[in-house]
Amino acid sequence: MPVIIKTMPRYFIHMAYNGSRYHGYQIQPHSNSVQETVEQCLSLKLGQSVSITGCGRTDTGVHAKNYYAHFDIDAEIGDADTLAHQMNAFLPDDIVIYRIWQVAPDMHARFDAVSRTYHYYITRTKNPFHTQDAYFLYGDLDIDKMQNAANVLFEYEDFTSFSKVHTQVKTNNCKIMEARWFEKEGLLVFRIKADRFLRNMVRAIVGTLLEIGKGRMTLEEFRAVIENRDRCEAGTSVPAHALFLEEVEYCRDASHASTNN
Asked: How far apart are CA 100 and CA 200, in angstroms?
């Protein structure tokens, strides 16, 4: 007789977090992480050990306005909305669960994501209300030159020059889909969208673009930085507290419950 393999119900979590107190999303030895905090709460509420898989990792101090993860359990959850409410009552104030819902058993929070979008926020004047969510940068910047340099990113795929060294990844290739500077509510914002990001990549790119804006690097030198694939040639990484994961897009609809319901 054929062996019947029963798939476990899979659920997606839509959440957000302030990363100030955490050493990134992913679990690390002897460090406080978002993943461990959520897993402990979820396991407690469900009465079984639960491991969650996130849509990607964020560095220490980086925030996420929209973050997705999935988990598998032995049986279907009776009321996922109530579970989300219970978790919010238990979790610290810097993590919120927006929604929990069932998806197809093969829906994957990381591998089915086709793009991630980050915003980096800069304030040009000292502002006591933006000390935790924007980078205060004094001095003149040539935004047009910074945008011209950002446009160069579309011409390349290998971004080794903007990656943290000695990372365990198979490739440093990324497809940049959007890279632009704009102003919003008195802040200078850099928006970048790609299929994937390397560790420290956005902060290193922003730091290097700022060198161009300050007149310390030319467009030709920026191209050389990318082509030489040497992190030491790129600019200094800007502080983590002003970086936000804004959006995650999926190749198929993850917003609805599984058709198995």
From this structure: 29
Q: Does domain 115-246 have CATH number 3.30.70.660?
A: yes
Query: What digits encode the pLDDT tens for the residues 231-260?
Result: 889 999 999 999 999 999 998 766 654 433
Q: Among 59, 81, 93, 253, which one carries the catalytic annotation?
A: 59
**Is 59 a catalytic site residue?**
yes
Global pTM value: 0.91
User: Could you give the angle at the alpha carbon of 51 between the alpha carbons of 175 and 203, nearest 5°?
Assistant: 35
Angle between helices 201-213 and 143-152 (to 10 degrees): 140
Contacts of 92 (CB under 8 A, 6+ apart): 21, 37
Whole-number Å distance between alpha carbons of 214 and 229: 23
CATH architecture of 10-111: 2-Layer Sandwich (3.30)
Q: pLDDT band for 6, please (50, 70, 90 cuts).
A: low
